[in-house]
Amino acid sequence: MGFGRRLARKAVRRATPRSVRRAMHPVRTAKRAVTPKAVRKVSRAVYTVTNPLGAAENKLIGAALGSGHKRRRSTTQRRTRSARTSHPASARSPAGTPMTSTDVRASEAMASTAQLANLMTVQRERFTPAQHPIVPAPSPVDPAPFARQEWQRHKGEAHIWQRSRRKQLRSQAAEHGSWQAASQFDQAQAQQYAAQAQADAWWQSLIRGDSEVLTAVLVAAFADNPAPVVVHQAAGTVAILTVLLPGFDVLPEKKAYVTPTGRLSSKAWTKTELHEVYAGLLGAHLLATIRESWAVAPSLITLRIRGEHTIPYAPAELLFDVTVTRQVGRWDDDSWGSVVLQNAKGGLRRVGKAREVRAWQDVT
């Protein structure tokens, strides 16, 4: 086929709408519909290799008919379609505009960082040490209200012109008010003395480590902990506790990182990173439990703490069983919980190249 004929054919094809061309060639249209795109690409590549002159001629014709502009328009449309596909309508910025994939990954990174920081807050918490309770002394009672009440009851006994009688009644009302106020003040003082004596006795019991008082104090202190704590035994200087630990599911699905170009992004954890972060979370809960025990129970010197992870419909997994003493340890160091789990006998069991956190075999 000559160059001119092909040029004319291309011109006719370009002037004919695509829908008309499809209707004119139903067989070709059906064949194209059932042929996978990857196969069509391979066919074109094979044709270019086996027919180099025809391919070059087609390229020349396309340039003559301005197909370069058409190719650029197709590229723009392709970019638009890919942008719409990669940024679903649900991913929108606070202003309501669609978010790019970079924005989505940056948002995921910030959410991951915030979630992880919130989980690790427990190891930065400080607890006020228990103090000897002091019952405040009562304030003196004002006699004026009682005097006015007494005067209202008796002022009708004298007419307005009976000044001396009314003066006498006012004096009696003031005396009654002073007596009533002193009586109530004495009663309040007696109640304060009794309450202080009871508080002193309770404090001495806590200092001695009486089992009933010590257990009640620990249970009340652990009631609002993010990781529940069970008090098995508490008496004297020793307490045995079990911390019910969270699983891997509380950690964020992805981690934040900065790309080589300086952009904030997110990506999946490696197994090593995931287990390292989880080990740090377990250390944080251990440290918080120890700190709170030292703070609310002055008599305690030794703690045995078991860390268990409960799995639905399965026996509890024992992750650590450690014993610590008040005098040995840098309890103000926020990373000391991880140090204990790493070095103490019965600490975390880390295995394999990824140093996975594994449960101990013996859970008794």
Proportion of residues in extended strands: 5-15%
User: In terms of structural class, how would the helical and strand content be classed?
Assistant: alpha+beta
Strand order in space, largest sheet:
1-2-5-6
How would the global form be characterised? Answer: elongated
Secondary-structure element pattern, one letter each: HHHHHHHHHHEEEEHEEHEE
**Low-confidence residue ranges:** 23-28, 45-57, 59-90
Tally of strands: 8
Report how far the terminal alpha carbons are from each other: 89 Å
Mean pLDDT over the residues: 78
Radius of gyration: 42 Å
Architecture overview:
- The protein has helices at 3-15, 18-24, 26-34, 37-50, 52-64, 67-86, 101-120, 144-154, 163-208, 211-222, 271-296, 336-343, and strands at residues 229-235, 238-244, 254-258, 264-268, 302-309, 317-325, 349-351, 356-358.
- With 364 residues, it is an alpha+beta fold.
- The strands form three sheets. A four-stranded mixed β-sheet has the order 1-2-5-6. A two-stranded antiparallel ribbon has the order 3-4.
- Strand 7 and strand 8 form a beta hairpin.
- 15% of the residues are buried.
List descriptors.
single chain; 364 residues; alpha+beta; two-stranded antiparallel ribbon; 12 helices
What's this entry about, in short?
The chain has 364 residues and is α+β, with helices and mostly antiparallel strands. The protein has helices spanning 3-15, 18-24, 26-34, 37-50, 52-64, 67-86, 101-120, 144-154, 163-208, 211-222, 271-296, 336-343, and strands at residues 229-235, 238-244, 254-258, 264-268, 302-309, 317-325, 349-351, 356-358. It is built from 12 helices and 8 strands.
